[in-house]
Amino acid sequence: MLEVIGLECRRGDRRLFSGLDLALEPGTLLHVRGRNGSGKTTLLRTLCGLFTPDAGEVRWRGESIRALAEDYRRELLYFGHLNGIKSDLTGIENLSIAARLDGDPVGIDDVWQALARIGLRGFEDLPTRMLSQGQKKRVALARLILSRAKLWVLDEPFTALDVEAVALLQGLIADHVAGGGLAVLTTHQEVPLTSGQVARLDLGD
Amino acid sequence: MLEVIGLECRRGDRRLFSGLDLALEPGTLLHVRGRNGSGKTTLLRTLCGLFTPDAGEVRWRGESIRALAEDYRRELLYFGHLNGIKSDLTGIENLSIAARLDGDPVGIDDVWQALARIGLRGFEDLPTRMLSQGQKKRVALARLILSRAKLWVLDEPFTALDVEAVALLQGLIADHVAGGGLAVLTTHQEVPLTSGQVARLDLGD
Amino acid sequence: MWAVFWCVLKRDLLLAMRRRTDVLTTLFFFMIVVSLFPLGVGTERQVLQILGPGVVWVAALLASMLALERLFAADYEDGTLEQMLLTAQPLSLLVLAKVGAHWLLTGLPLVLIAPLVGMQYHLSDAQIGIMMLSLLLGTPILSLIGAIGAALTLGLRGGGILLSLLILPLYIPVLVYGSGAIEVSVIDLSDTMPYLSLLGAFLLAALTLAPLASAAALKISLE
Amino acid sequence: MWAVFWCVLKRDLLLAMRRRTDVLTTLFFFMIVVSLFPLGVGTERQVLQILGPGVVWVAALLASMLALERLFAADYEDGTLEQMLLTAQPLSLLVLAKVGAHWLLTGLPLVLIAPLVGMQYHLSDAQIGIMMLSLLLGTPILSLIGAIGAALTLGLRGGGILLSLLILPLYIPVLVYGSGAIEVSVIDLSDTMPYLSLLGAFLLAALTLAPLASAAALKISLE
Amino acid sequence: MTLNWFKFASPATFYPLAGRLTRPFWILTGVLLVIGLYWGFFQTADQLGGSNPQKEYYRIIFIHVPAAWMSMWLYIVLVFWAAIGLVFNTRLSFMMANAVAPTGAVFTFLALWTGAFWGRPSWGTYWDWDPRLTSELVLFFLYIGYMALHSAIDDTRRADRASALLALVGLVMVPVIYWSINCPDPTQCAALHQRSGLGKIESNILFSMLTMTLAFWMYSFATSFMRLRSIILTREAEASWVQELLNREHSR
Amino acid sequence: MSDFFSQGGYAFFVWGAYGMVVLVLVAEVLQLRLQHRTILARLGRLARLSQSSRPE
Ligand code: HEM
Ligand SMILES: Nc1ncnc2c1ncn2[C@@H]1O[C@H](COP(=O)(O)OP(=O)(O)OP(=O)(O)O)[C@@H](O)[C@H]1O
Ligand SMILES: Nc1ncnc2c1ncn2[C@@H]1O[C@H](COP(=O)(O)OP(=O)(O)OP(=O)(O)O)[C@@H](O)[C@H]1O
Ligand SMILES: [Mg+2]
Ligand SMILES: [Mg+2]
C-alpha cells in the first residue's frame, strides 16, 4: 500500500541514505531506528511529502504521492517533533480546528470525549500554555483518537509522556494497526510494540 | 566557603524551593538532583548571581555575592545548557577570547594544548560550525582546562559526550576538587562521581 | 473548501484577540513614523501637504512589512504550519486566509486611522477620502506580496531586515500609484480613476498569484 | 580594563567579517528606504531638496533600529552573552564595546554612503558635508539608545516591532537636531554650530549613561 | 522522471569541463576588449554633432551600455537556471544560477556607476529618478536580495530553492516596476533616458559598443565558470571524485 | 598623449567610469582565484585530516 522505491535523501552536503526500498501492507507497523542524526526524521518527513527526496519516490496505492497530493494527505496523519498546538488556544479549540482542517467531520462532543479519554478531563478549556509539557503532548495526541486517517506517521511520540500515557498511546496504535491501518514510528525509548505485524528498519551505518 | 541561606526561588507563580540552606567547604562536589522542572537550573543560576532569588542569599567567603560582584565572578566558572561558543569562530579563537574575558592570562600555546588534551587535535582552526555536536561541547569544556576559577558550576555537562569524553571530564572535575576547588553540578545520566567529598541535594517533592 | 478558509481566518482572528498588543503595535509604529517626518522636515503647511501622500504610503509600506515578519513565524515555531501543509486542502487557500486575517488586523486599522494622519498633514477632505480608498485597495496588495517574502525568510537569522531588502523594492508600483492617486486628487477627483482602477487590477493579480507563490515558498522553507 | 574592551570589539568585527551579508543588508535597507520617497512624493528637484535631510535621518533611524534587533540576539541565543555577564569585568564596558562594533558596522557605512544619497536628493556639497558630520555625531547616539531597547526586548516574540515602539520616540531629539543642522546649512554654515554641539553633548551623555542602562536591562532579560 | 538526461550534466563531469572552458573565454575576452577599446578610443570622432552634441564623455557608452545589457541578460540567465532547478530538481542548475548572480550584480553596479558618470556632464546631475535608472537600481537590489537570501540560509538546498523562487518573483515584478515608474501617471508615459534606436547610432560607435558587449559577455562566461568550479568543490566536498582530485593536487 | 588622457576636459568622468570598471572586474577575478585556492587548501587539509584520523 505504501511503497518506497530507491529513496535517497541528503541534508546539507551529506547523504543520509540511498537506495532505500520498502513496501508496507495494511495492518503493519514500521519501527524506524537509528542513532541521533541518522536521518529518521528526514525519512518520516519524506514519507509525508514534506521533504523532497534527491532520488527515488514514495507511492501510495501504487501512485506517486506527488501526483496524489491532497488525496494522499487526506489519508495521512503526521505527528512531528513539534506538537502543532497553539498555546493561546484551549485544548478544545485546538482539536476542533485541527479536525476541521483535516476534513474529519467531528462534533464538539467527540472532542470533549477524546480529551477525556486521553486523561485531560478538567483541563479542556484552559489555554494550553498553562498545561505541563506532558499534558500539552496529550492534547496533540488526542488527534489520533479523532483521526480517521489510514496512515499514521509518528516521530518520537512517546517522549515527555508518563507510563500511563505511554500505555494508552500504545493501545491506540495497536487498535489502529489491528483495524487495517498503517503506522510508521520512531522512538529512542525501549517501548514494547505489541501490535500486529511489526517491521523494523535500521538507518545509519 | 560557599554558603546558601534560606534561599527561595519562584518561577511564574510556582514556588520551586524555599528555605534552602547549604554550606560547602573547599574540596567538595555538590551533586544537585531532581525531576525535570524541579528547579535545578534555577538553583545553579542563582548560585552564579544570574537569577535573583525571592528570598535568602548566597555568600562567598562570608560575603554576599551581590556585594562582591566582580570579585566573585572572577573566581567563578559557569557552564550552562548553552555552550557559549560562537559557531563562526574557530576553537582557538573561541577559547582565547573566553580566556581574555575571564581575565585568565593564557597564552596561545596553552589554548592549543587545551584543545589537544580535550581530543580536538586537527580541528583547532575550523569554524566550530563545522564540528559535530559533541565536538562543539568539547570546545566549550576546554575552558575548564584553562580556567583558574575556584568554583565550577556545571549544568548537565555530560550530555552529548561520548564515553571517553565523559571519563576525561570526570578526571578534570576530580582534579579540581582534589586541588581544593569547589564544584556544583547537575546530571540526569548515571555518572559515577568518584571525586573527593560528594554532597547530594535533592530538589522537588 | 471555503469552510476551511473561514476556519483559518477565524482561528487567526481569535488568536489575535488573545494577544491584543501585537495588533496595536503595528498601528503605533505607523503613527510614529508618520509623526517623525514633520519633526525632520519642518512643519510648514505647504511642505507637509506635498509630503503627506508619500509619507503616508511609505509609512504604510514599512508598517506592513514589519508586521509581516510575524505572519507565519508563530505557526512555524509551534509546528501548526507543518500541520497545515499536511491538510487535504490546497495550501494556497490557507495562505490566503492567513493573509486575509493579517490584513484585517494590520492593514484595515491603517485605513481607518488615515483621516487622523491626513489632518496632521493638512490634507483636504477629498484627499483624505482618496487616501483611504487607495489604502483600502493598496494595503492588501502589500500583505499579499509581503507574504511571499515572509514565507521565504521563515525562521532565518536577521529575518526582519532581510525581508525588507527582499520585498520593499517589490512594493514600488503600489507606492507610485497609491501616492499618485492622492496627489492628483488635489486637482480633479475624476483624475484619480485610472490610478484606483490600476490598483484594483494589481490587487486582483496579486490575489490570484501571490498565494500560489507563498505556498510554494512555504513548502521550500519547511523542508 | 581597556584590553577587554578591545577584545570584545575585535571579536564582534571578526564575527561580522565572517558573515558579510548582515552588514550589507543594513546599508541596502537604508538605500532602499531613501529611494522609496522620491517615488512616493514625486521627483521634482525642489521638493527633493526640502525632503532630503528629513528622509535621510528617518531612514537612518529606521535602519539603525532594525539592525539593533540583532545586536545582542546572536550572543543571547548561543549563550555567549550569559558568559559575558559572568566575566570579572563591568558589563557596561562590554556593552559599550559591542555597541561600538555595531556602530562601526552599521552606523559608519551610513555616514560614508550619505554623499550618494545627497546626490539623489540634489543637495549641495556644503549640505552633504553637514549631513555627514551630523550623521557621524548622531548615529552613535542611535546605537547607544537603541541598545537599551534591544536589551529589554531580548528573546521576546515580535521583538522587532516592540523595539521600534520603545525606542523610536527616544530618537526624536537626535532626529530634530540632526535634520535641523542640514536644513540651516543652506542659509549659513556657521548656523549649524549650535545644532552640532548639541548633538555632541547628547553623544557624550549617551556614552556615559546608555551603557549602564543597557547593562541593567541585559541582567533583567537574562534572568 | 523522463528527463533524467539533465543529470548527465552532473557536477562531476562539469567541473573539469568548466575548467577547460575558462581559458578560451579569457582569451576571447582579452581580444575583444582590445579591439573594442582601440576602436572606441582611436577610430571614433572626438565630438558628436546632432541635436544633442556630445563631447568625449560619450566614450562611456562603450562600457555603460554593455554593462547595462549584461546586467539584464544575466538576470534572465539566472532566472532560467533557477527555474530549471525548481522544475527538474537538478543541483547543477542551481549552482549555475548561483555562479551567475555575483557577476550580474557587478555589471548592474557598473551600469549605475558609469551611467552616473555620464549623467553628470550630459544632464548635469549624477542621478535622476528616471525610470530606466530606477529600475536598474531595483534590479541591483534584486541581485543583492538573491545573494543575501541565499547566504542567510544555512541549508544549501533550501537556500537554492528559496532564492530561485525569489528570482522568479523578481522576473515577474521587474517589468511591472519599470512600467510603473515610467508611467507614474497611468494616462501618459514619459522617460528622461534618451531612447534612440540602434540604427541611429554612428556605425563606428556601434561596432565598438557591440564588441565591448561581446567582451563583457565572454567575461561573464569566464567568471561564472570559475565561480561554478568553486561552488561545485564546496558542495561536493564529500564526493569521491573530489577526494581523488585533491589527492592529485596534493601529490603535485 | 596628454590629449588622450585629458579626453577633451572630461578626464574625470571618462576615466572615473573606466577606472571603476577596471577596478571592479579585476577585483572580481582576484577574489575568484583566491576563493578557489582557499577552498582547495581547506578541502585538502580536511581530506588529509580524515585520512590521518582513520588509519587504514
Ligand atoms: C536599464 C539599464 C540601462 C540601459 C539599458 C541603458 C542604456 C543606455 C543606452 C542604450 C544609452 C545610449 C542612449 C543613446 O542612444 O544615446 C544610454 C545612455 C545613457 N545612460 Fe543609460 N542605460 C541604463 C541605465 C542607466 C543608468 C542606471 C544611468 C545613470 C545612473 C544611465 C545614464 C545614462 C546616461 C547619462 C546616458 C547618456 C544619455 C544621453 O545621451 O544624453 N543609464 N543608456
Ligand atoms: N534543516 C537541516 N538542514 C541541514 N541539515 C539538517 C537539517 N536537519 C537535519 N539535518 C542533518 O541531517 C541529519 C539527519 O537529521 P534527522 O533529523 O533526520 O536525524 P534523526 O535520525 O531524526 O535524529 P534524532 O534522533 O536526533 O531525531 C543530521 O546529521 C542533521 O545534522
Ligand atoms: N524563563 C522562565 N519563566 C518562567 N518559568 C520558567 C522559566 N524557566 C523555567 N521555568 C519554570 O521553572 C521550573 C523549573 O525550571 P528549571 O529549568 O529550573 O528546571 P530543571 O530542574 O533544570 O529541569 P531540567 O531537568 O529539565 O533541566 C519549571 O517548572 C519551568 O517550567
Ligand atoms: Mg528526529
Ligand atoms: Mg535544567
UniProtKB/TrEMBL annotation, chains A, B:
Q: Name one GO molecular function term.
A: transmembrane transporter activity
InterPro entries cross-referenced by the UniProt entry: AAA+_ATPase, ABC_transporter-like_ATP-bd, ABC_transporter-like_CS, ABC_transptr_haem_export_CcmA, P-loop_NTPase
Which intervals hold domain ABC transporter?
2-201
Indicate yes or no for the key word Nucleotide-binding. Answer: yes
Keyword terms of this UniProt record? ATP-binding, Cytochrome c-type biogenesis, Membrane, Nucleotide-binding, Translocase, Transport
Q: What's a BP term from Gene Ontology annotated to this protein?
A: cytochrome complex assembly
Do you know which SMART domains this protein is assigned to? AAA
- What positions belong to coiled-coil segments? none
Name the Pfam families for this protein.
ABC_tran
Q: Which NCBIfam families match?
A: ccmA, PRK13538.1
Please give the name of this protein: Cytochrome c biogenesis heme-transporting ATPase CcmA
The UniProt gene name for this protein comes to ccmA
Automatic annotation (TrEMBL), chains C, D:
InterPro entries (UniProt xref): Cyt_c_biogenesis_CcmB (IPR003544), Cyt_c_CcmB_bac (IPR026031)
Q: Offer one example of a GO biological process linked to this entry.
A: cytochrome complex assembly
Q: Where are the transmembrane segments?
A: 21-41, 47-72, 93-116, 128-154, 161-182, 194-218
Gene Ontology, cellular component aspect: plasma membrane
Which one of the record's GO molecular function terms can you name?
Answer: heme transmembrane transporter activity
Domain of life assignment:
Bacteria
| Key words, A-Z | Cell inner membrane, Cell membrane, Cytochrome c-type biogenesis, Membrane, Transmembrane, Transmembrane helix, Transport
Location relative to the cell: Cell inner membrane
Q: How does it sit in the membrane?
A: Multi-pass membrane protein
| Pfam families, sorted | CcmB
Q: Tell me the protein family, please.
A: Belongs to the CcmB/CycW/HelB family.
Its biological purpose is as follows:
Required for the export of heme to the periplasm for the biogenesis of c-type cytochromes.
NCBIfam families, A to Z: ccmB
- Name of the protein described by the UniProt record: Heme exporter protein B
The source organism is Allochromatium humboldtianum
UniProtKB/TrEMBL annotation, chain E:
Cytochrome c assembly protein domain location, by residue? 26-182
Q: Name one GO molecular function term.
A: heme transmembrane transporter activity
Organism ancestry: Bacteria, Pseudomonadati, Pseudomonadota, Gammaproteobacteria, Chromatiales
Q: Which residues form a coiled coil?
A: none
Can you name this protein?
Heme exporter protein C
Q: What is this entry's stated membrane topology?
A: Multi-pass membrane protein
Taken from the UniProt entry, a GO cellular component term is:
plasma membrane
What species does this protein belong to?
A: Allochromatium humboldtianum
The residue ranges crossing the membrane are 21-41, 61-88, 95-113, 133-152, 164-181, 201-222
Q: Respond yes or no to whether keyword Transmembrane helix is given for this record.
A: yes
Q: Where in the cell is it found?
A: Membrane
Q: Which UniProt keywords apply?
A: Cytochrome c-type biogenesis, Membrane, Transmembrane, Transmembrane helix
| Database matches in InterPro entries | Cyt_c_assembly, Cyt_c_biogenesis_CcmC, Cyt_c_biogenesis_CcsA/CcmC
Question: Which GO biological-process labels does this protein carry?
Answer: cytochrome complex assembly
Q: Does the keyword Transport apply?
A: no
- What family does this chain come from, according to its entry? Belongs to the CcmC/CycZ/HelC family.
Quote the function comment for this protein. Required for the export of heme to the periplasm for the biogenesis of c-type cytochromes.
Top-rank taxon of the source lineage equals Bacteria
From TrEMBL, chain F:
InterPro entries assigned: Haem_export_protD_CcmD (IPR007078), Heme_exporter_D (IPR052075)
GO terms in the biological process aspect are: cytochrome c biosynthetic process; cytochrome complex assembly; heme transport
What does the entry list under GO cellular component? Answer: plasma membrane
- One Pfam family hit: CcmD
Topology relative to the lipid bilayer, per the entry, is: Single-pass membrane protein
Instruction: Tell me where it resides.
Output: Cell inner membrane
For this UniProt record, give its keywords in alphabetical order, as a comma-separated list: Cell inner membrane, Cell membrane, Cytochrome c-type biogenesis, Membrane, Transmembrane, Transmembrane helix, Transport
Question: Which stretches are transmembrane?
Answer: 12-32
Q: What does this protein do?
A: Required for the export of heme to the periplasm for the biogenesis of c-type cytochromes.
Record's family? Answer: Belongs to the CcmD/CycX/HelD family.
Name the NCBIfam families for this protein.
cytochro_ccmD (TIGR03141)
Q: What's the protein name? A: Heme exporter protein D
